[in-house]
Design brief:
This protein is of the alpha/beta class and 314 residues long. It has a single domain, classed as 3-Layer(aba) Sandwich (Rossmann fold). It has a seven-stranded mixed sheet, sandwiched between helices. Strand 4, helix 8 and strand 5 form a beta-alpha-beta unit. The radius of gyration is 21 Å and the shape is globular.
Length: 314
């Protein structure tokens, strides 16, 4: 008689121990997840909560180690929540936003948060954009070196960055895209930044994206249930920027959508609790489009249509 504590390989014996085999299967998945890691690189505090937060929270729940890098302090951001539009908040906005970031990162489950310390560049032609310390004006290789050092130390399997951001051309987002695209080769090349640790090959680089499929589904659901939709302007613009050739992985975040929203609410200066980001009820999101979408920008292990995990192929 089989007396082990693992699921037996013999199918006949396995059928006699369904509970143990279920437990063994769960343990195997958990151990595999615990050996994986993810690095998210974002431009400003709140980006980590508005782009892929539910996915990161799901992976953390499964045992993946997640680390966050935020390039700027968000100094140029407007206060968008009327309740936070106060002198004491505005006078200390950099610290307030850092505190909000820490709270959101804890909700999502990031193990470590690194702020690179650069200044928010603001939008083109703004006063902030002309500031000499703005992130977008810093020497490219100086910033790249910092990221290479982080990658070689953290050794992530998956890195999250941004796409080319034609839909939202913020200078800091564009710079993060350029940096993460260069980061894949730089981190793996021992001749580059040789003093920053042993080379490390990132397996996959993704960008969280708002696809036409997602926006159209939520837009129609809101029209059907509420008679109006917050996505009218998005619908008008989406078709112009959608690339039908891009490789998109859809990650099921059922059960984690509200947690992602809780993280976004932690950025009290940046979101109005009664505003756009929360206009679609969580239950409706999970019933109509329970996925977050990610564009694959690089893969060392290929890609297949229909992939449902950022770690597929590993």
């Amino acid at each position: 008689m089989w007396r082990g504590h693992r699921c037996p390989r013999d199918p006949g014996l396995a059928s006699q121990f369904p509970a143990i085999c279920r437990l063994s299967s769960v343990a195997t998945v958990t151990l595999a997840s615990m050996s994986r890691s993810l690095l998210a690189i974002h431009a400003h505090p709140d980006d980590e909560a508005s782009k892929g937060a539910a996915t990161v929270a799901r992976y953390v729940d499964e045992g993946v180690r997640a680390v966050l890098v935020t390039a700027t302090g968000g100094e140029a951001g407007d206060v968008l929540n009327p309740e936070m539009d106060r002198h004491d908040v505005i006078a200390n906005l950099t610290q307030v936003r850092a505190d909000e970031l820490a709270a959101a990162a804890e909700i999502i489950g990031f193990e470590k948060v690194t702020m690179l310390g650069y200044r928010d560049s603001g939008m083109p032609e703004s006063d902030s954009n002309g500031h000499p310390e703005a992130f977008c004006h810093q020497p490219f290789d100086d910033v790249l070196g910092k990221l290479v050092g982080i990658v070689r130390n953290e050794r992530p399997d998956v890195v999250l960055g941004y796409d080319a951001h034609e839909f939202y051309p913020h200078p800091d987002h564009l710079r993060v895209h350029e940096l993460t695209m260069a980061l894949v080769d730089a981190a793996a090349d021992g001749s580059k930044f040789p003093d920053l640790g042993a080379p490390w090959q990132i397996t996959k680089l993704y960008a969280p994206v708002f696809t036409t499929d997602r926006i159209t589904a939520l837009h129609q659901a809101m029209l059907d249930t509420a008679g109006e939709s917050p996505f009218e302007l998005w619908i008008d613009r989406m078709g112009t920027f959608e690339d039908p050739e891009r490789r998109v992985t859809k990650v099921d975040v059922t059960g984690f959508v509200e947690l992602g929203r809780e993280a976004l609410r932690a950025h009290r200066t940046q979101v109005d609790p009664a505003g756009f980001w929360f206009a679609v009820p969580t239950e409706l999101v999970e019933s109509v489009y329970p996925w977050e979408d990610f564009e694959l920008l690089y893969s060392a292990v290929g890609w297949s249509e229909g992939e449902s995990s950022l770690f597929d192929g590993m």
